[in-house]
Design brief:
352 residues; alpha/beta; 434 Repressor (Amino-terminal Domain); Rossmann fold; six-stranded mixed beta sheet; elongated
Length: 352
């Protein structure tokens, strides 16, 4: 006797079942279930793609039991960062934790180290552990496979009642709480231009992150609008670390900049350290500015001029918003965090 596939809906339309998806993909029902539920059980990527394509082709929707299980509140929130030891992420996570704890929710925080497969595995693990919400604090990895597979995981999670929120530049369409990355970079570059600098070097972030592209665009726009254009010798790539900033400053010095803007404070602090080590005065010979205003930016070897991002407050606001989304109370208008410049001792007029 053959097995029936699917069920008939109210209008006589057959609704595909998990068995239908498994048959179309040429896999077992248990394998199809692991893929579609976001299970952390290992499944090869070709098999995973076949199952996802079959489910999409058939219009498969999780059954009501699975939906009910997934929407039962676990009072947990999954948070994805690139490196939880980075002061930038640590301050945001602390704010998220304070907000979540005030309403009896706990956080699961995981670092992806900007690795595509690791971040996808983190997302699947969050889904498998039935968190109520996923908060993507880190910028998206600029990789087509990452965006396609992350979108598939997150779409299924939301279909089951989960909430997704992003807090940086991301290609996935979800509610976003962030700040003006491009405007912030324009602000700090304009500050240096107003001081009289014309040879302004730029230390970009890792090339595989969307936020890197957005912040660099702010630098390019500010330089172009004044008619200076962008000198390729004045743009180098860093890795958002102190050591990376020092290495980038070493390369930049060959182009003789009078000022350096780094895409984050860690690299700016590294640049200052290198400049001082080779006998340059900061800001007497070279001005330096950063972005983020992490806690010890004010206590660097030379207190750092930077774009202020209210990291702790941003985390607390993000925590409150994601909890409101879980309660079915989205804000009427999503708040905008405007860029603000903090001028300290690391910038001045260029040497005459």
């Amino acid at each position: 006797m053959s097995h029936a596939t699917g069920v008939v809906g109210e209008e006589g339309v057959k609704i595909p079942s998990l068995r239908d998806v498994a048959r179309a993909a040429g896999v077992s029902v248990s394998t199809a279930s692991r893929v579609l539920s976001g299970s952390s059980h290992p499944v090869s990527e070709p098999t995973r793609r076949r199952v996802l394509e079959a489910a999409e082709r058939l219009g498969f929707e999780p059954n009501r039991l699975a939906r009910a299980l997934a929407t039962a509140r676990s009072r947990t929130i999954g948070v994805v960062v690139h490196d939880v030891s980075d002061p930038y992420y640590a301050e945001i996570v602390r704010g998220l934790e304070d907000a979540a704890g005030s309403r009896d929710h706990a956080l699961f925080v995981s670092s992806s180290d900007r690795d595509v497969d690791k971040e996808l595995a983190v997302l699947r693990a969050f889904v498998a552990n039935q968190v109520d919400a996923i908060v993507l604090v880190a910028s998206a990895i600029d990789d087509p496979r990452y965006l396609a597979e992350a979108s598939a995981i997150l779409d299924r999670f939301r279909a089951l009642g989960g909430v997704v929120m992003t807090m940086s530049e991301h290609g996935y369409a979800a509610p976003r709480l962030g700040y003006e990355n491009r405007a912030g970079t324009r602000l700090v570059v304009t500050h240096l231009l107003d001081l009289g600098h014309r040879r302004i070097g730029y230390i970009a972030g890792p090339p595989d992150l969307l936020v890197t592209r957005v912040r660099q665009r702010g630098y390019e726009e500010a330089m172009t609008e004044l008619g200076l254009g962008v000198d390729p010798e004045l743009v180098v790539t860093g890795d958002f670390t102190i050591e990376g900033g020092a290495r980038a400053a070493e390369r930049l010095l060959r182009a003789e900049p009078t000022a350096i803007v780094a895409a984050n404070d860690m690299m700016a602090i590294g640049a200052i350290r290198h400049l001082l080590d080779v006998g340059k005065r900061v800001p007497g010979d070279v001005s330096v500015a950063g972005f983020d205003d992490i806690e010890f930016a004010a206590y660097a070897a030379v207190p750092l001029t930077t774009v202020h991002v209210p990291l702790g407050e941003l985390g607390q606001l993000g925590g409150r918003l994601v909890l409101d989304l879980l309660d079915g109370n989205p804000p009427e208008e999503w708040p905008r965090i405007d860029a603000r410049l903090v001028v300290r001792e690391s910038t001045s007029a260029p040497p005459t």
